[in-house]
Specification:
By secondary structure, the chain is of the alpha/beta class. It is built from seven helices and eight strands; from the N terminus they run H-E-E-H-H-E-H-E-E-E-H-E-H-E-H. It has helices at 5-22, 44-47, 52-63, 79-92, 136-147, 165-173, 183-186; strands spanning 24-30, 36-41, 71-75, 98-102, 115-116, 124-132, 151-160, 176-181. Helix 1 crosses helix 3.
């Protein structure tokens, strides 16, 4: 079930406002890729925020509404709150969506699983993350879900840093890449 268009448009506008206000940190920083930037987009300030997180779920579900998937997740930590927000947005709209977490490495104890949550084997899944710079995290998650027997239908992120990650994901993983907001949307280009 999809939220009414007016609710989605309002959610998208408010989420963008919150990202601009709360998540963009100006100043010299070194990114995970090792490159330096004059700003940092800290989307955990959004995806873990009580007002913004529900909006993340609505916006990301709308971004991927034409795709067929029954579970959503990605590499821990950036993907976890995005997937959970989408799970809750689906439930609020009367639907059902499972979430999963991809560990950076398999556990050495217990069930020794790399993917936590409901089984993804045999399922169409969406890989998500909060922001994409190099594409390494979603590529790692796509590989892990494939190893677990799932079919990744796409990678979706809240914000794309316009560093070529989308093309890399399409080329190396062979899946579609989508993002809710560009650097232009965030006022950073």
């Amino acid at each position: 079930m999809t939220e009414p268009q007016t609710d989605v448009a309002a959610a998208r506008a408010r989420l963008l406002e919150l990202i601009r206000e709360r998540a963009i940190v100006h100043g010299r920083v070194t990114l995970s890729s090792g490159t330096e930037a004059d700003y940092y987009v800290d989307l955990r300030r959004i995806s873990l925020d009580g007002e913004a997180a529900p909006l993340v779920g609505i916006v990301m579900r709308d971004l991927t509404k034409d795709l067929d998937y029954s579970a959503v997740g990605g590499l821990t930590l950036g993907a976890d709150p995005v997937a959970t927000a989408m799970l809750h947005a689906a439930a609020a709209a009367g639907g059902r969506l499972d979430a999963f977490v991809v560990r950076k490495a398999g556990k050495a104890h217990g069930l020794q699983q790399r993917i936590e949550g409901p089984s993804v084997s045999g399922r169409d899944v969406l890989v998500v993350e909060d922001t994409t710079t190099t594409g390494n995290s979603p590529l790692d998650a796509v590989e892990a879900v494939r190893e677990a027997g799932a079919n990744p239908v796409a990678v979706a992120t809240i914000a794309d840093r316009a560093t070529g990650a989308g093309q890399r994901i399409r080329d190396e993983a062979g899946v579609e890449y989508r993002f809710a907001y560009s650097l232009e949307d965030l006022g950073l280009a």
